[in-house]
């Protein structure tokens, strides 16, 4: 620490530049991580908020809820701790009084108010009639909708009134509008027919005993039970996005490590004669190597710390529409991995230090 | 007990299929409190002798003992440790760490080995007349001051032996005298065994004994031959 820190103080400019590079890389990594996480979350927050264990779709839908249609009578064929019907449909809506180009891509989710899919209202109230919806709060935050606005479906003449906002309600990157399962019939099939004793739904969402879907039984060959985690990773595009970002971030971290490894190595080569003199004085290779590792650690830690602050600052300035979201655990893991890999990069230099012959250095 | 002892020490180098004898079989020893000089022409083997004494290279034959203990036959790691605690090096060019201040050069010794009780840092710097320079980096002070700092660094760990390889080579003669005078004074005061290699024969007046190296053969010189040599 003594050698490492005093050298940083002595060669300020040099080390500030290295820290600067590390800061930029860390900033980029954190930023991408935030975007990746935010985007991934936007695919699934609605599903996560259900706190469900499984979802039942018709076999022929092949795990894709957009392709799923079944009768609500199938609910009786399912045995689970909790069950809820769900109608799902993508739709385009516009605010009654808005100009034509302010159309919103949304997901309608039809549910029953007394079942567990009913979300928690953070502003306004729950829907009570088939003409009312509660919508994701991002629509309010982006200034697109406010309480008591009316929205109409582009594909039909139906209108809904926004009566409440809810948190964390995005599905496949679109904001969700929750409404009644009856309203869903209307959205899906147009004109509401007379009272029927059978409703069309997209899926049955279940909670299982001990969270284990093996405890759920279905008495219908044509229905398929899918674990919620599998259902999420099979959301269209979800896995591709997550993998793309994961690869980008991993490569960035590896590149960061290589960059710092090279920096430290070049600095070590420049100090060969100084290290040689110290070795001639009987200072062990171990002490010198530790000093280089500590130095790398200090530089990386400061760079990563600054990157973290930079990301936090940027986050405050970002418009609400950017799907940026940070996750403490991710940030800690990414920081730790960057630190560890940077220190591994410094191990190159350790080999050089061990091999320095003090005799050559002093003659 | 002798501070350092060479027993039939020989050093040869292979140059292709020729063998160069850099140091002929040598027996040599000095006590604590003694200041000896080794003079001789370039390429005669002085540095070879000194680096073997300091354990930076091993003898081809024979054995070096420090304070009665085996030294040259020890493992690399143990020799490094002995070098740290028992030997102070002073080299021709600066052997100071460029990014440490004069005071930090001494502090480094404390960081490497925290256990040993050492003399007061500023007191030592004061004795060598460089106390005012304690916060300066080596590049900010003169060559003579640097060599005094190097002496301070060598003395600070309280070694048994001080090895100086042409410590005055880069200094003008007035500064050279000062540095050697300090070296002689501290050798006596702190009871060190000091070996100084020099090509400047006038500096040997501070030494208790003078050896001459010629073609790898180390021979003690009598005080008479020195004064006649001075005239030439
Ligand atoms: N590593 C080495 N390889 C080959 N020959 C060497 C090596 N080190 C020293 N020598 C030879 O040993 C002799 C003595 O060298 P040295 O001890 O450096 O002399 P001095 O310090 O008196 O000038 C020289 O002839 C030199 O060429
Ligand atoms: Mg020499």
Description:
The complex is a heterodimer of chains A (363) and B (232). Chain A is 48% helix and 21% strand. The longest helix of chain A is centred in the first third of the chain and has 39 residues, at 12-50. By secondary structure, chain A is α+β, with helices and mostly antiparallel strands. In chain A, a hairpin with a 2-residue loop joins strand 10 (170-171) and strand 11. By secondary structure, chain B is of the alpha/beta class. Chain B has a single domain (2-222), classed as Rossmann fold (3-Layer(aba) Sandwich), CATH 3.40.50. In chain B, helix 3 (102-112) packs parallel to helix 5 and helix 5 runs parallel beside helix 6. Chain B is built from seven helices and ten strands. Helix content of chain B is 34%, strand content 27%. The A-B interface holds A 2-3, 6-7, 10-11, 274, 277-284, 287, 358-359, 362-363 and B 47, 51, 54, 56-57, 77, 80-85, 87, 89, 91, 95-100, 104, 107-108, 111-112, 137, 153, 165. The complex binds adenosine-5'-diphosphate (ADP) and magnesium ion. The site of magnesium ion has 2 residues of chain B, from helix 1.
What is this structure's SSE topology?
The complex is a heterodimer of chains A (363) and B (232).
Chain A (H helix, E strand, L loop, with lengths): L1 H9 L1 H39 L3 E5 L11 E2 L6 E2 L2 E14 L7 E9 L9 E4 L7 E5 L1 H4 L8 E4 L5 E8 L3 E2 L2 E7 H9 L10 E2 L1 E5 L9 E2 L4 E5 H6 L4 H33 L1 H9 L4 H33 L10 H28 L2 H5 L1
Parallel strand pairs in A: 5-11, 7-9
Antiparallel strand pairs in A: 1-13, 1-15, 2-12, 3-14, 4-5, 4-8, 4-13, 6-9, 7-11, 8-9, 10-11
Helix pairs in contact in A: 1-2, 1-8, 2-6, 2-8, 2-9, 6-9, 8-9
Chain B lengths: L3 E12 L2 E13 L4 E5 L6 H8 L7 E6 L2 E2 L5 H11 E4 L11 H11 L8 H7 L15 H14 L4 E5 L7 H18 L2 E5 L11 E6 L2 E5 L1 H9 L1
Helix pairs in contact in B: 3-5, 5-6
The complex binds adenosine-5'-diphosphate (ADP) and magnesium ion.
Pfam families (chain A): FtsX
Protein name (chain A): Putative hemin transport system permease protein HrtB
GO cellular component, one term (chain A): plasma membrane
């Amino acid at each position: 620490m003594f050698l490492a820190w005093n050298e940083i103080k002595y060669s300020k400019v040099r080390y500030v530049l290295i820290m600067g590079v590390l800061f930029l890389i860390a900033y980029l990594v954190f930023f991408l991580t935030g975007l990746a996480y935010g985007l991934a979350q936007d695919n699934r927050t609605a599903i996560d908020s259900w706190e469900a264990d499984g979802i039942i779709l018709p076999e022929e839908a092949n795990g894709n809820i957009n392709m799923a249609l079944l009768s609500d009578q199938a609910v009786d064929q399912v045995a689970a701790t909790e069950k809820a019907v769900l109608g799902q449909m993508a739709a385009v809506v516009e605010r009654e009084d808005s100009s034509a180009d302010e159309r919103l891509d949304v997901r309608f989710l039809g549910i029953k108010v007394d079942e567990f899919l009913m979300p928690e209202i953070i502003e306004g109230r729950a829907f009570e009639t088939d003409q009312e919806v509660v919508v994701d709060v991002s629509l309010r935050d982006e200034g697109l909708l406010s309480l008591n606005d009316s929205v109409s479906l582009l594909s039909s003449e139906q209108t809904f009134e926004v009566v409440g906002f809810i948190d964390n309600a995005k599905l496949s990157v679109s904001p969700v509008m929750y409404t009644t399962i009856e309203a869903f019939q209307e959205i899906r099939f147009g004109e509401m027919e007379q009272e029927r004793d059978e409703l069309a739904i997209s899926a049955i969402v279940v909670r299982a005993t001990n969270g284990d879907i093996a405890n759920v039984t279905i008495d219908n060959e044509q229905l398929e039970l899918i674990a919620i985690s599998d259902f999420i990773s099979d959301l269209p595009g979800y896995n591709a996005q997550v993998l793309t970002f994961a690869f980008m971030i991993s490569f960035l971290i590896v590149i960061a490590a290589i960059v710092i490894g090279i920096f430290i190595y070049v600095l070590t080569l420049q100090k060969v004669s100084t290290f040689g003199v110290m070795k001639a004085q009987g200072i062990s290779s171990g002490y010198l190597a530790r000093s280089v590792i500590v130095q790398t650690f200090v530089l990386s830690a400061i760079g990563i710390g600054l990157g973290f602050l930079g990301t936090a600052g940027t986050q405050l300035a970002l418009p609400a529409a950017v799907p940026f979201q940070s996750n403490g655990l991710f940030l800690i893991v990414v920081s730790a991995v960057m630190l560890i890999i940077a220190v591994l990069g410094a191990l190159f230099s350790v080999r050089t230090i061990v091999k320095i012959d003090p005799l050559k250095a002093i003659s | 007990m002798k501070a350092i002892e060479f027993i039939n020490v020989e050093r040869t180098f292979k140059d292709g299929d020729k063998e160069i004898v850099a140091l002929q079989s040598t027996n040599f020893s000095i006590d604590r409190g003694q200041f000896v000089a080794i003079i001789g022409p370039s390429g005669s083997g002085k540095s070879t002798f000194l680096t073997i004494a300091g354990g930076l290279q091993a003898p081809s034959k024979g054995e070096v003992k420090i304070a009665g203990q085996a030294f040259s036959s020890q493992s690399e790691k143990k020799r490094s440790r002995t070098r740290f605690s028992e030997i102070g090096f002073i080299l021709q060019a600066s052997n100071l760490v460029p990014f440490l201040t004069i005071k930090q050069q001494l502090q480094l010794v404390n960081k490497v080995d925290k256990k040993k009780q050492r003399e007061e840092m500023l007191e030592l710097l004061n004795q060598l007349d460089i106390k005012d320079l304690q916060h300066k980096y080596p590049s900010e002070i003169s060559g003579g001051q640097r060599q005094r700092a190097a002496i301070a660094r060598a003395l600070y760990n309280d070694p048994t032996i001080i090895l100086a390889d042409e410590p005055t080579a880069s200094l003008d003669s007035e500064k050279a005298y000062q540095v050697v005078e300090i070296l002689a004074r501290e050798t006596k005061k702190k009871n060190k065994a000091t070996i100084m290699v020099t090509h400047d024969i006038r500096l040997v007046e501070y030494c208790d004994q003078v050896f001459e190296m010629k073609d790898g053969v180390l021979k003690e010189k009598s005080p008479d031959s020195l004064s006649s040599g001075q005239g030439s």
